[in-house]
Amino acid sequence: MTVPDSLTIRRPDDWHVHLRDGPVLAGVLPFTARQFARAIVMPNLSPPAVSVAEVAAYRDRIMTALPQGMDFTPLMTCYLTDASDPDEIERGATEGVFTAAKLYPAHATTNSTHGVTQIAAIRAVLERMEKIGLPLCVHGEATDPDIDVFDREAVFIERTLAPLIREMPGLKLVFEHITTAEAAEFVAISGENVAATITPQHLHINRNAMFAGGIRPHMYCLPVAKREHHRLALRKAATSGSAKFFLGTDSAPHARSAKESACGCAGIFNAPFALESYVAVFGEEHALDRFEAFASENGPRFYGLPLNQGTVTLRRDSFEVPERLDASGTELVPFHAGEQLGWRIAD
Ligand code: NCD
Ligand code: ZN
Description:
Blueprint: E1 6-10, E2 14-17, H1 23-35, E3 38-41, H2 52-65, E4 73-79, H3 86-94, E5 100-103, H4 123-132, E6 136-138, H5 152-167, E7 173-175, H6 181-189, E8 194-198, H7 200-204, H8 228-238, E9 245-247, H9 256-259, H10 274-284, H11 291-303, E10 311-320, E11 325-327, E12 330-332, E13 340-345
Parallel strand pairs: 2-3, 3-4, 4-5, 5-6, 6-7, 7-8, 8-9
Antiparallel strand pairs: 1-10, 10-13, 11-12
Helix pairs in contact: 3-4, 6-8
The site of zinc ion has 5 residues, from loops.
């Protein structure tokens, strides 16, 4: 098969991104808005965005930070806590503020201390979401400190996700940033109402990348990258043509100083070259014909939103990813820093 020199697809969306808040928001937002028409924006601010008013105010700050002339729509999520109220969640959905609600198991990741301690605490909320069709985005990791970090996703499926789906078979659920063969398999065999996002890093790296010649903080995110056979299973799922898998970068910027630290933050900043990174995988897997569905169709179909108008063109053109980028004065290290990528967005 000959490899095309360019690929034009319907404008894509990012179904999982961290845009942050305060000055750095204005710095990172254009990277996402340049690549994507819409994005599901994570609510793990400090303090988290839990109410309709807080999430609406965050959406306003994003729109204020958006440079003139950029066409981008943030799709907002609310952060579930043990105290979340079903009526408030339904109101957020009805008023068009919430596109989804986010389940962070307490202490699973960055700014998750206010997360849910046990599913029983949000049962009434989840029942309401099932009833009204509001999707639940799930950070799928068990948080018991006794569980090995590399097993946390698989254990979460067994202990939490499988029972939840049995109990609420109609709940629309996105298993986010999946990192294991177990997760890909679980999603594939679940009902139509269960889907997953896959990040660029989990398609490119396995856990060795964190230890290549020394500790590599910019390869660290949560859920952490796993063994090679998991990476291969994720590549297979992403390029399978199944409508259950779609693009979600989990771009999670942290200042270089906060990553390169004795206790470095989890998160990989992949927004600047996300499409270039994903398309490389589809090219390597001889699945360029399936890239548009993964990037631009499966997500909106799952969320019940219209497909985007307009297109984006990627051209075969090798370039080097910068070592550092500036986001309103915060120094960030992008994913693939210093590496060559073989596709570039045509302006
Ligand atoms: C995210 C962050 O920094 O907000 N970090 C990450 O490693 N992905 C949180 C998250 O999505 O787990
Ligand atoms: Zn995330």
